[in-house]
Design a protein that fits this description.
Layout (H helix, E strand, L loop, with lengths): L1 H5 L3 H18 L2 H18 L5 H14 L3 H4 L3 H9 L15
Helix pairs in contact: 2-3, 2-4, 3-4, 4-6
Length: 100
Amino acid sequence: MRIAEAADHPFALYRGLIDLGRAHLRRGDLPSATRVLERGLDLCRTWHFVGGTPLVAAALGASYALAGRADEALPWSQAVEEFRSRKIHTRPGSLSCVRG
């Protein structure tokens, strides 16, 4: 992520943020996961990474839900459905962290 930030490469930074956020989520470090994933979602929105937005949003929703923040998690449940409705999945196991 430091290299992506130094190179001012938003897509590489997005990839680093989603992977780091999901790693924090899997470890149960919900505050770190939430912080990283919120940053990733902001980046997706700013740079219009349409393909990445549902992936980040679904992981962020899972982080909120696991932290007991159901009101904040509920709007992101649509992201999970959007991801699952795609005909082509480049990362089909990416939501395995929310399936338990």
